[in-house]
Structure formats: structure tokens, C-alpha cells
């Protein structure tokens, strides 16, 4: 049993569908002649003109970080070459009682590199077994 309300809903849906088709046809017609409306001889000329507006990044997508408004990732610091002279200087600084982080910063090396130098020089204590 179909009620009057259901009939009205069906009729409204049919009207909506007809209006959507009409709107799609109008948009299609406008797009088909858009190049003439803005003064270009062909669609290809319009497309070329639009692509030239994109600038030097044409064809490339923005990086995800920049797209989300975040700054780009920092560049890595250049690695310090660990020479025998550097190792000797680091060992002297550690023996002088300086803290590990301060020594690493002073010589431009990472803390794990500092720990490796200390271990190779025998300046670390072995962990006790559990």
C-alpha cells in the first residue's frame, strides 16, 4: 500500500533527477564552449595557457609535509670524519672529566660515536651479569 506521502517522495525524486540531468547538460555545454568564451581558438590553446600559469612546479605534486602546512624536514648535518687525531682528542677530553654530551658537541660527533670511541679505548665499565 503506497501512501500519498510516499507518492510525493517518488515524484520529488523524479523531479530532482530531471533537474540534475538538466544541470549536467548545461555544465557540459558551457565547458564545451569555454575556450570561445574566454577568447581562445581551441581547447588545446586554453589548456596550454592554464598550464603555463602553474609555474616551475608544473606536473609535480607538493610534498606531503608542505601540503599539510608543516615545514619541510631538516637536512642532515654533514658527518664528521672520525680520524685517529679526533679519537685521541676525544679520549683526552673524557679523561679530563668532561661530560659525554659536552664532549660529543665540542667535537661534532654523535653520542653513540663517542661511546664507541670510549669503548675501544677501554674507558667504559662492563655491565654486571644478572
TrEMBL record:
Coiled coil: 2-29
InterPro entries: Homeodomain-like_sf, HTH_Psq
Keywords: Coiled coil
A GO MF term: DNA binding
Chain segments carrying region Disordered: 54-79
HTH psq-type domain segment(s): 73-124
Biased composition (Basic residues): 58-79
Domain of life: Bacteria
Stated name of the protein: HTH psq-type domain-containing protein
